[in-house]
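#data-curation
PF: Archiving a pair of folding outputs for the training set. Convention for this channel: one message per protein, sequence first, structure tokens after, nothing in between. First:
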Amino acid sequence: MLTVRDYSCSKCDTVTEHFVTDIAANLYCECGSVLKMLLSSPPFILDGASGDFPGRHSRWIKEHEAGGKQEPLDG
């Protein structure tokens, strides 16, 4: 599995991204020193419709129920 990881060089203070298949592999900077893998935050979104964020989901239901109600036509 190909993954993008952030790496930093302690010698020249550069931060780079590399596509890697093995996290344990040693990568080298242009200056020749070994790069250190940085911890990055995972990308995620709390989606109100999926139930991952229950307060927002309840609000979404109430908003859409109210939006679907229509007044009867006089005619």
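PF: Second:
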Amino acid sequence: MVLDKTDLSDSCSYGNLGMIVPSHFVPLAAPGMVAQGVKWMFNNKSPFYVRPSLHPSLISWGFKFLKSATNKHLEASAPPLLQLNLYSKNLYDELSRKPGFDFSMERKGILMYYKTEKVAEEEAHLSAQARAMGLDAVPLNKQQVQQLEPGMELDILGAVHYRCDAHLYPNKLISGLIQHLVSNGATVKTNEPVVKIIIQNSSIKKVVSTADEYAADIVVMAAGSWLPELAKMVNVRIPLMPGKGYSFTDLHPKHLLNIPAILCEARVAITPMNGFMRYGGTMEIAPVNNKIHLNRVRGIVQAVPQYFTNIKLAMPDKENIWFGFRPCSPDGLPYIGIPGKVNNLVIAGGHAMMGLSLGPATGKVVADLANGHTPELSIKAFDPGRF
């Protein structure tokens, strides 16, 4: 039984950039992020923004983020995050070979572009760290990048090619997964928000929605940015804030990238998918809201030609701007596991920008836990009760 408050037509995974990223082993709460975030606070087109608020959950989250943004945390977090990403990529490889799962997965890697000497040095250091951890990461000069992207006019110093990465078309993936569930006997209830959860003797007995109530043996909470309010129903505290991101898709691009791109200084991502070009970026940490901040989108539009001078983007119409809420934990690591207070509850959330990338691994771990099996990799770092 799957319960969802939406109709499953436009969840966060639909509008993202479709990147599978073992290269992203650095958590959001990383050294230097606080100082950089303060600078970006004063730029309404900046890629990262924490909306000032006296909301208790934001204040609590902020203090935990400050405490986590250290070298010690990075060193402890990178190995388990990388292991989870590699596990997930292998599961994607397996899934892509199964009948009925054509989601246009391509294994071309991702190019991390940079324009400044400062960022070139940072990316060189990061790629060296990646290679030391066993990843295929190759620094390239402008001429070498041009050979990979002959149709682009480049204004860059260089890029790092993370050949370990991949990408897919998320719209195909999600619709395929839903169809697979239904055709294999799963009952999917849409437009049914959960309003109450009944507990007896530290176990969930019933889940009550707006339409019905359901007896429960095992309950999996995977509610994205709405996870904290669900967990609160069973007295489990999950520190998490939504990070709003925007994307838009050019259905008729004049120039199509060969390899997905991340523009380092601008924090903008671009993915060629299904013959389209999808552009995305920004991270607005704030309570859930449906307001579209056009200056954030304008920042994405204006950043692209600074790297690819032959791509001239028009500002998309408001109705063509997609946004979603990335569920961000204060230490940049997901929550995966069984909280101590409720013995038949499995938590899965807080994946921030890596929800699609880490989806298969998280799903497999959750299935193992729900069936009483020991997961194939350690999930200690992702303990839902760590705060």
